[in-house]
Amino acid sequence: MMxxxxxxxxxRFFSSSDAHILRxxxxxxxxxxxxxxxxxxxxxxxxxxxxxGIKLMILNSDILKAEPIIQRYYDNLKIxxxxxxxxxxxxDVKNDYVRRFTGVCYATFGALLGTGFQRATPQYKKCNxxxxxx
Length: 134
Known about the structure:
With 134 residues, the protein is an alpha+beta fold. Helix content is 46%, strand content 17%. The chain has two domains: 7-80, Alpha-Beta Plaits (2-Layer Sandwich); 93-127, no CATH class. The strands form two sheets. A three-stranded antiparallel beta sheet has the order 1-3-2.
């Protein structure tokens, strides 16, 4: 049996400003929001990671109303970060940190050795929908 007045966690943040942006978006739509562990995390940012971050919680009865708002918030973050496929426009993009690290290593060692050796194609992102890499 689900209780409609129970608080459920819908997001975690390591920055209080990010938590308050989503809080404001939800409250505009008349969704009551509670933020937990903000004070502890603001004392020392490293403690935010240790404590599990700042928790944004809403009433269980507001979940269905909040889901599209939260999804749109995260989609906009992906767009701002350049995580949109230039080929098909999908937001289902994976950052390839291994290739990025490898490219940085090649460039660093090339500069140290004076060879100017760099990766020819620094592909860091891949679209999971169409497979395009850039």
